[in-house]
Amino acid sequence: MQFDYVAKRSIQGGHVVDTAYTITVDISESQRTARTEGNQAISLSGNTVSTIHRGDIIQSITTVLIDATTTPDIDDMREFLDSVKYGEQFQIDTFDYIMDSFGSAYTEAREHPNKFRYSFAARYMP
Fold this sequence. Notes:
The chain has one helix at 74-84, and strands spanning 2-6, 20-24, 27-42, 48-63, 90-92, 95-99, 106-112, 115-124. It is mainly β. It has one domain (2-124): Elongation Factor Tu (Ef-tu), domain 3 (Beta Barrel), CATH 2.40.30. Strands 1, 2, 3, 4, 5, 6, 7 and 8 form an eight-stranded antiparallel sheet that branches. A hairpin with a 5-residue loop joins strand 3 and strand 4 (48-63). The chain is elongated. The relative contact order is 0.24.
């Protein structure tokens, strides 16, 4: 998957704040979920009234193991994820997304010494 973003935080050596970058990441799992927020009222007669506040498409993504020698490396992933975790828009394969969870938007799981797997959820922005 290709991620296009503007560097905002955790800037790595050789990169510049507010500059657009692209990384291509191998994914071990990608799951699409449709989520609707709203409420539904059902009368005693059985009539239903639905109020839809929003409908979202969520892409849950988990990377393959990443270390200091892979492309992208750990610093690339941290820069990308930290740069978009507060609602900044980014692209996945040319489609616009934002992180689905403000602030605590991703996990960095150590699965082997100096190897990490990254997981995050992104909300599609039509």
